[in-house]
């Protein structure tokens, strides 16, 4: 029942700075206008008249109109798009249980109330403080029993409710918070609280979810809380969570909700801009080494081969990074000790058996090279034996331990011990990075000092957030990475710097045929990204995900120890191209070859030089790796666009993308961009591109390409078209195809060029002759098939190939790919090269879904390959058999003379491009077969 307005009764809170209080009766009696203190258009304002009031700034406005004896939101105004939305608002929704005596239908516990069920007492406006103006609506609810024989003198203090709307002068978002109090003690237990209950007729809802924002075509909404439920069911928007709070006179303040506005169709970009404003620290490159796949303790990993985690080996690794990175101009931000650095009892203390000097010797050595120490820690107690021992100790000490043995971060006793311990490491050992690996989210235990069930999840979420906040306050600039059990809510970034993307630490996408384990590992990680950001459409900046970095360690190689440099470099390029801020190295320095170190250094330098683009705005583009579709990562910076694309399969593909909003472009303009391929070679293979045009990129099998799309004013150099080239002292070195007689060169500078005797005006393309033309390079393939009858088992499974490889071949591998329509157990087939058996390697898919058989051919010249894939008994399974040549060959370059050209120009693009080496994948044959 709605009560009458009760005059000048207002809720006062000593924690609020009250500028003026306006009783509800005054709203009905007269027209009130609060003049703005400044005429600046961006300033927030509050205006009231007899019909209601308006609260807004130059970006948005919330319009409240009279509804009976109260006021409610009737309009949401988006001044960026120029649209005004009529809404049906209940302002808030509370579900609570209270001390109820007596009964009347509809008063059963738990009770759900909204603004319309409460007495409206008035409002007040708080003048700007810290750049924000606040409007406060005041409500009162109390028990109301009606009817003869059903009411009694059971008076109890009511529930006081404050709705606080806050608005900054120059930001396109408004916040909303609820304050609750009860003068009579803990008479109300709030089970569920919704800060926004809105229906927006005509709005198209495109996104919602747990910890995720709600999107319309030009607005976003959400609780600024990682475990917020932001839903839009049947057209009604609801932003709620489960406080599990008993309300008394000390009061309760909710998490805040946010409403933001954007241009039409630009909601995602506006939301990510908002995330950048609220995060605990800006996204910034953070390079770290982690010991996990390099050094481990003997106690837990007995019998495994690899380095032992101890003081001596850790100091040796620090010296190695000094030599291979720091001394070569690359800063290592943190040296992270993963699991094993502590002793299991007591909690999280340094194991002096393996670190006799504690952490001080490491911190001292790291400080000398401009780095610092990082620590792994599992809040639940770690894993395996460590978890068992820590859980047992926790029970002995009376700490909060779950029935499965997990330590509960929300438990007051354990939380206090852990917080004190971590503060000690920050202060004493100058730790600058923490990796929190595993938090319990949900408990049925009733002795942890928190409520069980859904309220335990809320308490555990709040506990981790509060721990991060406390540690950041102790050490500003601390980098916190939260991993296992986390979900990709952008509101975690108000507390932590990075969140694990999900999936496993690493994996191989065995559903996808590849002869390279590292290719399979790249595809696995990108498939997880695809699931998270395309299938589940997580609204989370890619710059703040953790992917478990680059792996090549003694405990896990990920690829092969003797893998080609190309594959190692592809992995590096993809890793940095995902737009990550945290660059993790899970490597064993001693097993990296010098050329692998050089590729690593070049990739880091490229990522650092392009941080403004890579970390600013990343969109996952293209298709699904699992479906063998090319895909990529697109970034827009202030001075260039960067696009990295990859083909996850052996067959050549064409990647196609339109330069528009959907691809991640922030705004249309008339800018023309030059798509310059900078990896794996330098080339210009597309014309100048503008907003709205389609970009197409040819990709060979398993090929990764990086393009920098440069605006015209940044192109101040000559470049060759449709051929590879390098910058060199005194000219360009070009690598045209065999038989080429002319090369097209465009002058991107502001002065005429004289290139090998040909004058090319600024901005003009000239034809430069090659004298003599390059010789024609020949690759010949001849095939002979045995038992090549149609329809019968064994058709096309036996035969031979004769190959003649070019003399400039650097390496070549012939491979046979079997793809049965259903799984088969295929043993080693009969394969020979030049009459010799043996030397073949193989890779297989899950449950016999595919097989690769490969052989490395030695150099150029003639080779004869015989094959027989016949099974001992016919399986009657249809499938496909194909043969492939994976070739690396040296290209002949020609120098075009250009006085004054410097080879340093090539260094501006930084990635380890090799224009003079061609990586080629050629199909020798492909046909249906029956096994």
TrEMBL record:
The keyword Signal applies. Keywords: Signal. InterPro entries: Aldolase_TIM, GH. Residues 1-41 form the signal peptide. Gene3D superfamilies: Aldolase class I. This is Uncharacterized protein. It comes from Candidatus Glassbacteria bacterium RIFCSPLOWO2_12_FULL_58_11.
């Amino acid at each position: 029942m709605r009560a009458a307005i009760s005059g000048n009764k207002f809720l006062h809170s000593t924690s609020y700075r009250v500028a003026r209080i306006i009783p509800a009766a005054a709203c009905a009696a007269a027209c009130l206008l609060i003049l703005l203190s400044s005429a600046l258009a961006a300033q927030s304002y509050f205006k009231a008249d007899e019909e209601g009031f308006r609260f807004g700034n130059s970006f948005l406005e919330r319009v409240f109109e009279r509804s009976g004896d109260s006021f409610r939101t009737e309009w949401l105004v988006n001044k960026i798009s120029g649209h005004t939305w009529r809404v049906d608002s209940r302002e808030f929704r509370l579900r609570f249980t209270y001390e109820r005596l007596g009964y009347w239908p509809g008063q059963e516990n738990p009770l759900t109330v909204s603004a319309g069920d409460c007495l409206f007492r008035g409002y007040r406006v708080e003048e700007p403080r810290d750049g924000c103006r606040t409007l406060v609506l005041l409500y009162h609810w109390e028990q109301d029993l009606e009817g003869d024989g059903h009411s009694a003198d059971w008076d109890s203090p009511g529930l006081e409710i404050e709705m606080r709307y806050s608005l900054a002068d120059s930001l396109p978002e408004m916040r909303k918070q609820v304050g609750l109090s009860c003068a009579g003690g803990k008479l109300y237990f709030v089970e569920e609280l919704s800060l926004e209950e809105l229906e927006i007729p005509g709005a198209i809802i495109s996104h919602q979810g747990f910890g995720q924002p709600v999107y319309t075509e030009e607005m976003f909404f959400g609780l600024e809380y990682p475990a917020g439920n932001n839903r839009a069911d049947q057209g009604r928007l609801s932003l709620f969570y489960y406080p599990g709070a008993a309300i008394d006179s000390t009061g309760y303040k909710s998490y805040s909700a946010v409403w933001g506005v954007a241009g039409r169709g630009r909601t995602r970009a506006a939301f990510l801009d908002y995330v950048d404003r609220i995060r605990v620290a800006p996204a910034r490159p953070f390079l770290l080494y982690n010991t996990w796949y390099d050094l481990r303790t003997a106690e837990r990993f007995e019998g495994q081969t690899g380095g032992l985690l101890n003081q001596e080996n850790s100091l040796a690794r620090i010296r190695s990074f000094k030599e291979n990175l720091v001394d070569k101009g690359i800063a290592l931000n943190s040296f992270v000790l993963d699991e094993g650095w502590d002793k299991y009892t007591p909690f999280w203390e340094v194991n002096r058996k393996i670190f006799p000097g504690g952490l001080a010797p490491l911190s001292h050595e790291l400080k000398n090279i401009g780095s610092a120490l990082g620590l792994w820690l599992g809040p639940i107690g770690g894993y395996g034996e460590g978890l068992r021992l820590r859980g047992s100790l926790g029970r002995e000490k009376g700490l909060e331990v779950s029935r499965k043995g997990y330590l509960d971060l929300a438990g007051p006793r354990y939380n206090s011990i852990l917080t004190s311990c971590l503060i000690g490491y920050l202060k004493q050992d100058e730790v600058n990075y923490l990796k929190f690996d595993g938090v319990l989210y949900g408990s049925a235990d009733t002795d942890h000092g928190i409520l069980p069930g859904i309220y335990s999840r809320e308490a555990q979420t709040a506990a981790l957030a509060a721990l991060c906040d406390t540690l950041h306050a102790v050490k500003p600039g601390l980098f916190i990475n939260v991993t296992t059990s986390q979900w990709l809510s952008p509101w975690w970034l108000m507390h932590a710097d990075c969140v694990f993307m999900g999936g496993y630490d690493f994996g191989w996408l065995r559903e996808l045929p590849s002869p390279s384990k590292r290719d399979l590992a790249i595809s696995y990680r990108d498939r997880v990204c695809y699931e998270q950001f395309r299938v589940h459409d997580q609204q989370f900046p890619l710059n703040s995900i953790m992917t478990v970095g680059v792996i090549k360690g003694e405990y896990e190689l990920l690829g092969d120890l003797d893998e080609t440099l190309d594959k190692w470099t592809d992995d590096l390029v993809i890793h940095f191209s995902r737009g990550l801020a945290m660059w993790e190295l899970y490597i064993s320095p001693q097993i990296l070859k010098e050329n692998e170190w050089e590729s690593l250094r070049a990739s880091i330098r490229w990522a650092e030089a392009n941080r403004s683009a890579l970390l600013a705005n990343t969109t996952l583009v293209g298709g699904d790796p699992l479906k063998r579709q090319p895909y990529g990562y697109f970034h827009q910076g202030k001075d260039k666009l960067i696009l990295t694309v990859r083909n996850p399969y052996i067959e050549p593909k064409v990647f196609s993308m339109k330069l528009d909003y959907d691809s991640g472009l922030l705004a249309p303009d008339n800018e023309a961009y030059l798509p310059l391929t900078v990896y794996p070679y330098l080339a210009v293979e597309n014309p100048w591109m503008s907003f709205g045009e389609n970009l197409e990129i040819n990709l060979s099998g398993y090929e990764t390409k990086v393009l920098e799309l440069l605006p015209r004013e940044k192109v101040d150099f000559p470049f060759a078209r449709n051929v590879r080239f390098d910058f060199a002292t005194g000219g360009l070195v070009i690598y045209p195809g065999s038989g080429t007689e002319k090369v097209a060169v465009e002058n991107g500078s502001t002065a005429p060029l004289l290139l090998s005797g040909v004058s090319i005006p600024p901005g003009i393309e000239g034809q430069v002759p090659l004298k003599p033309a390059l010789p024609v390079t020949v690759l010949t393939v001849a095939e002979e098939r045995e038992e090549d009858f149609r329809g019968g088992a064994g058709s096309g499974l036996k035969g031979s190939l004769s190959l003649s490889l070019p003399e400039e071949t650097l390496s070549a591998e012939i491979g046979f790919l079997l793809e049965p329509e259903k799984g088969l157990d295929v043993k080693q087939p009969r394969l020979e090269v030049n009459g010799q058996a043996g030397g073949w390697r193989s890779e297989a898919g899950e449950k016999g879904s595919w097989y690769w058989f490969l052989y490395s051919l030695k150099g150029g010249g003639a080779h004869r390959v015989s094959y027989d894939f016949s099974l001992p008994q016919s399986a009657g399974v249809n499938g496909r058999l194909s043969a492939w040549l994976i070739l690396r060959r040296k290209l002949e370059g020609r120098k075009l003379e250009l006085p004054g050209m410097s080879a340093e120009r090539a260094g501006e693009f930084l990635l380890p491009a090799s224009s003079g080496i061609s990586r080629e994948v050629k199909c020798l044959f492909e046909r249906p077969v029956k096994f």
